[in-house]
Design a protein that fits this description.
Layout (H helix, E strand, L loop, with lengths): L4 E5 L1 E2 L2 E2 L7 E3 L10 H12 L7 E11 L2 E6 L1 H13 L8 E3 L3 H8 L1 H5 L13 H14 L6 H8 L2 E7 L6 H11 L5 H11 L4 H15 L10 E2 L3 H7 L11 H8 L4 E2 L5 H4 L11 E3 L3 E6 L4 H15 L3 E2 L16 H11 E3 L2 E2 L4 H22 L2 E5 L6 E3 L1 E6 L6 E6 L9 H21 L7 H15 L10 H18 L15 H17 L15 E4 L23 E4 L12 H7 L1 H5 L3 H9 L8 H25 L3
Parallel strand pairs: 4-6, 4-7, 5-8
Antiparallel strand pairs: 1-8, 2-3, 5-6, 9-10, 11-12, 12-16, 13-14, 14-15, 16-17, 18-19, 20-21
Helix pairs in contact: 1-5, 2-5, 9-15, 10-11, 13-14, 13-15, 13-17, 16-18, 16-19, 17-18, 19-23, 22-23
Length: 647
């Protein structure tokens, strides 16, 4: 790790992070302390989420050493909050945190104990800073709740790490601070990881090569090929071929030959670049269908992509933990544990060739190659959001980068990724591309947290295994089935195996993947049929499971349904922003009131609405509750059982 980066434990055997002879001072150009309920409760939750077997990174602190003390350039809100937290826990801290020219803030920090004890007679309340006082009150409230487990919390707090990062000497701090706040750029955990992995390489030219590949991969906008910029596209063509669309090589020597001897502009931004007045981030755009300009947005951010790639690396190289009973990687993709995840692989990982710790240089080379190759596969075969021209409305996309023109006049354009055998029609590929888009988007909207997007890892491993054999033969035609099997496994495990005795009544706890996979099946059946009723259907973030016949009818206007309201046949999935009255309305009222939402909503919801009709003398709601919902449930479960091979 760089000598400018220091790992700080919040508390440890030798005290806490404020037990230091160095003073932290918050400069006047920074705003006053401003964290409120949302940020402080999230801080407590983050600490409570820490696993017992690993350290947990909670952020970075950017400082500049000035006249024997640390001037805090970035991270002062978190630093102050941690200072308050320790004091609220009754942990003594040295008075090493001060605010420049803010007497009220400093007075409040020195009188935290009196504020906690409410000894107002011993303090001058006119000298108390309201923001800090509010923070103390919020933290104190959280720490005194009935369910708060102090012993467990303290054990987890001991796992928390902050990285203190010193900026280089002679940096214009005012300019740096201004840019960090306006652009939101700062040294993150992945920057520290980059420096750590580069330190494993002894040769400066190899470090430079590593950095160029890393910087290209770290920009998750667009396609990675476009982040290799050099004269006459020499580097891009050396890595990705003359058409810019070939798999990057699996040889370190080939990268050295391709990059080391050329003029390559990296996409990473150094501090000295950021403080230039004319600094500008270029957009990464291309074209589809002639003159339609497009841009692309990744479904995950770079720290999570690193975790996916680490799992790909572990799978490809058969990395196991030196302690047979321990896991080499966590199941959750937790960006707060990025450094811990890599440290475990490097420190404890074993392959067929020996311990990774004994060959860190080889690990750095192998991982950076894996990163680029995985990123290439990610760009080509994992869905993204595509935006046409200046539209703010994106759509799901699965496209590859192609090139038109000759020599220096080459430019990128984008077309559907290929899922066909050689010789098959373009329309066959378009059909398969649409199927892949629908299946992956069903997974994407089902698992909204990046921590549980395991489907991406599984697809990337399948694409990468055996030197990417599956993209070199007809196996790629079955890629949609690989994704569908992920959904099938989830529905089996979390729905069919949970529901017993033929009763499917999980209510609002029904996993979203069940609804979305069902919609995929209904869409696919419709596409293969004659009616084409659902050709307009797209997967959106419908994150609320609702009862079609409500649990609590509005003001007792119709009969409550007690014994079957949670049945799968009576459930639907809608957007959270739909009027809250939806939940209490009768089925026929929902049908008439929310026509526009229903016609664009889940296919299951559309079918439920169509089935909501009166039958003879029976009102629609009563008929739905007594008979219609059951027939609907049996039909929908029939689709799921057939697809999941459930008897």
């Amino acid at each position: 790790m760089s000598k400018l980066v220091t790992e700080l434990h919040i508390i440890g055997e030798n005290g806490n992070m404020f037990d230091t002879d160095m003073e932290y001072i918050i400069p006047l150009y920074q705003r006053a302390y401003a964290w409120e309920d949302k940020q402080l409760t999230q801080l407590i939750e983050d600490i409570n989420d820490v696993a017992e077997d690993s350290n947990y990174y909670i952020g970075s602190l950017i400082v500049s050493k000035q006249f024997g003390r640390y001037e805090v350039v970035d991270g002062q809100q978190r630093l102050t909050s941690l200072y308050l937290l320790l004091n609220c826990l009754g942990i003594k801290t040295k008075p090493t945190l001060t605010f420049a020219c803010r007497e009220k803030s400093n007075y409040t920090l020195r009188n935290i104990e009196e504020l906690l004890l409410e000894n107002r007679s011993k303090i001058d309340m006119d000298r108390i800073e309201p923001g800090i006082q509010r923070g103390i009150r919020i933290l104190s409230h959280e720490l005194t709740k009935d369910h708060f487990d102090r012993e467990s919390f303290m054990e987890k707090l001991a796992k928390i790490i902050v990285y203190r990062i010193e900026v280089p000497e002679n940096t214009d701090l005012n300019r740096y601070y201004e840019i960090m706040n306006t652009r939101g750029e700062q040294l993150e955990q992945h920057d520290i990881l980059k420096a750590t992995l580069m330190s494993y390489l002894s040769d400066d030219s190899e470090k430079g090569l590593f950095a160029k590949i890393w910087d290209a991969c770290s920009d998750m906008t667009g396609y990675v090929q476009m982040h290799f910029i050099s004269k006459n596209n020499a580097v891009r063509e050396a890595i990705f071929g003359s058409e810019w669309n070939s798999m990057p090589p699996n040889s370190w020597q080939k990268y050295k030959k391709a990059i080391s001897g050329t003029t390559q502009e990296t996409t990473g931004h150094k501090i000295c670049d950021l403080i230039e007045k004319n600094f500008k981030v270029e957009d990464d755009e291309g074209y589809v269908d002639g003159d339609v300009r497009v841009r692309f947005e990744s479904v995950i951010e770079f720290p999570y992509f690193l975790l996916h790639t680490l799992k790909v690396y572990v799978s490809l190289y058969g990395v196991t933990h030196e302690i047979a009973t321990s896991k080499i990687v966590d199941e959750l993709l937790d960006d707060k544990k990025l450094l811990d995840a890599f440290n475990r692989v490097v420190s404890c990982g074993i392959t067929d060739t020996g311990r990774i710790a004994d060959s860190k240089e080889d690990f750095a080379r192998g991982f950076i190659i894996c990163l680029l190759r995985t990123r290439y596969l990610f760009d080509k075969y994992i869905i993204k959001r595509e935006y046409a021209n200046d539209s703010a409305d994106g759509e799901w996309s699965l496209k590859s980068l192609y090139v038109s023109g000759q020599q220096s006049k080459k430019k990128a354009y984008y077309g559907n990724s290929e899922f066909t055998r050689s010789g098959e029609w373009t329309r066959t590929n378009d059909w398969r591309t649409k199927t892949n888009i629908m299946m992956q988007s069903a997974l994407r909207v089902s698992y909204t947290s990046p921590k549980v997007m395991h489907w991406i890892t599984k697809l990337l491993i399948w694409l990468s295994e055996a030197d990417c054999k599956n993209i070199k033969n007809d196996a790629i035609t079955k890629f949609d089935k690989v994704a569908e099997n992920i959904a099938i496994d989830a529905v089996r495990e979390n729905f069919f195996q949970v529901c017993s005795n033929g009763v499917y009544a999980m209510g609002v706890n029904t996993p979203h993947i069940v609804f979305n996979y069902l919609d995929y099946l209904l869409w696919n059946d419709d596409r293969n049929g004659k009616k084409k009723k659902y050709s307009d259907f797209v997967f959106e973030f419908r994150n609320s499971v609702e009862h079609w016949y409500p649990q609590n009818p509005s003001e007792g206007t119709f009969e409550q349904w007690k014994d079957g309201v949670d049945q799968f046949g009576n459930l639907c999935i809608i957007q959270r922003n739909v009027n809250s009255k939806f939940s209490n309305m009768s089925p026929e009222a929902k049908k008439s009131t929310f026509k526009d939402m229903i016609v664009k909503g889940s296919i299951k919801l559309r079918i439920m609405s169509e089935l909501t009709e009166k039958n003879g003398d029976k009102p629609a709601s009563l008929y739905w509750k007594e008979r219609a919902y059951k027939a609907h449930e049996e039909e929908m479960l029939g689709h799921l059982k057939k697809a999941c091979n459930i008897e």
